[in-house]
Amino acid sequence: MITTSTQRAPAVAGMFYPGDAETLRTELASCLAANPTPVAALNTLKALIVPHAGYVYSGGTAGKGYALLASAADRIRRVVLLGPCHRVAVNGIATPTVQTFATPLGSIPLDRAALDSLSDLPQVIANDAAHAQEHSLEVQLPFLQTVLGAFTLVPLAVGRTGAAEVAQVIARLWGGPETLILISSDLSHFHGYAEAQRIDGDTATHILALEQLTSYEQACGALPINGLLAVARQRGMQIERVAQCNSGDTAGDKSRVVGYATFALYEPPPATAGDDLGPALLVRARNTIATQLKQDIQSEPGHPALALPGATFVTLTKNDALRGCIGSLQAHRPLDQDVRANAASAAFRDPRFRPLTVEELPHIRVEVSLLTAPVAMRFTDEAEALRQLRPHIDGVIFAAAGRRSTFLPQVWEQLPDPRQFMAHLKQKAGLPTDYWSPDVELQRYEVRKWKEVTA
Question: Which structural domain range is residue 157 located in?
């Protein structure tokens, strides 16, 4: 196959894995034969760290991780794949300019909108040469095609940069349950069997503690791993080791081995009706307002999520009429701090209303919305964007002409028609209701919401 301006052809088929499609499927079936039981079965599998050697060496170890994706295949529609550069020296994180990546199993479309959304970050550069011969990304693709079927790909080749810069990219592409974060990395290289086991055991201990790796001697993909671990620690994720071995255990001699391991990372489960996070947020919002008005406060129940980053909106109503609404669109501080700050702003600093008074407080009803991370929408025109909107599910962020506005999903109750919803969203941004331009950007998010039963 020849690489064209629109497609990156397979470079290591026939070397790292079979070049014939039927032979490849047979080998993949063998690698995926394991049926591991996830430790965090009740949580959402969000990320994997998998090895990238030839399948004869590390395919079984990688396959145990990919086997975990079988139950999530119906929801995963995008894979953000990061691996280290082996062939081309790169300063930063390289994105390709092509439209598809190919393997003997077919072509995978790239999420060009997601790749283009990174163009403002100084650490991200377009560099097809970094991708042309890179095996760390390619060897993962047949696994993904087999387990997931149809999906879009965001391939990133990580060169010389910092873990914080990698974490910034991962956080921006995090998305929701439709997005899998995949890190490609082997462990130690070319030590004796026993020494490799010692080194890799120590490395695994750091990874399982979500602690940063300090050397490429520990893992060739230390930078992408560190970027993911930083985000995982921030988001309170759970991690498990799915499999670990080295080439001396598979197809190599034991004098100079390469280490391999697969790790799975899980997001906390969604709230249930009995979850106590809502009451904890509501009482903190009301207490913040009461404190500023020098009124009595209630006891505040604890919750582990309060220490994690979170984005909230606090909405105040009086006799079912809006009395204030302020919030955060991105998680940038602990949830405890965010809900308190937004409660104070909704009560006293919403420019649409005068500051709340002591006399009004008994008649105020507090509602707290907890936002998921916004995900960019892809569309060619307004009609397509409107067709994608999900009434009563999507909160929407509108940005164009230097203006920005948002509606929470609750607004669908007053504006149930998508065209009407969009028109008012533009109006809120200070633009005409019929405004449209190629520079329009839309993001959507979902919320968990809790409202006081009585004022």
Answer: 7-267
SS3 7: strand
Least confident window among 29-38, 69-78, 110-119: 29-38
Q: pLDDT value at position 388?
A: 87
How many angstroms separate the CA atoms of 405 and 361, rounded?
28
Amino acid residing at 425: L
Whether 260 is in a domain gets the answer yes
Q: Tell me whether residue 2 is in a domain.
A: no
For residue 144, how far is the Cα from the chain centroid?
17
Question: What domain count does the chain have?
Answer: 3
Residues 6+ apart with CB under 8 A from 236: 268, 304, 305, 307, 308
User: Residue 101: is its pLDDT beyond 60?
Assistant: yes
Asked whether residue 32 carries a pLDDT value surpassing 50, the answer given is: yes
- List residues bridging with 399 in a β-sheet: 404, 441
Q: Are strands 78-84 and 179-184 parallel, antiparallel or unpaired?
A: parallel
Sequence-distant (6+) residues with CB within 8 A of 260 are: 51, 53, 57, 58, 61, 62, 186, 187, 243, 244, 245, 246, 247
What does the pLDDT read at residue 2?
42
CATH number, domain at 435? 3.30.1490.150
Instruction: For residue 220, give the CATH number of its domain.
Output: 3.40.830.10
In the chain, count H helices and then E strands. Answer: 13, 20
- Is 170 contained in some domain? yes
The closest alpha carbon to 11, from 93, 108, 90, 87, belongs to 87
User: What CATH number did the domain enclosing 316 receive?
Assistant: 3.30.700.20
Q: Are 346 and 361 in contact (CB under 8 A)?
A: no
Same domain, 243 and 102: yes
What pTM does this model have? 0.62
pLDDT value for 233: 84
Mean pLDDT, residues 228-241: 87
Residues 290 and 413 occupy one common structural domain: no
Q: Residue 39 pLDDT more than 80? A: no
Residue 272 within any structural domain of the chain: no
Give the pLDDT score at 444: 87
306 and 239 both lie in a single domain:
no
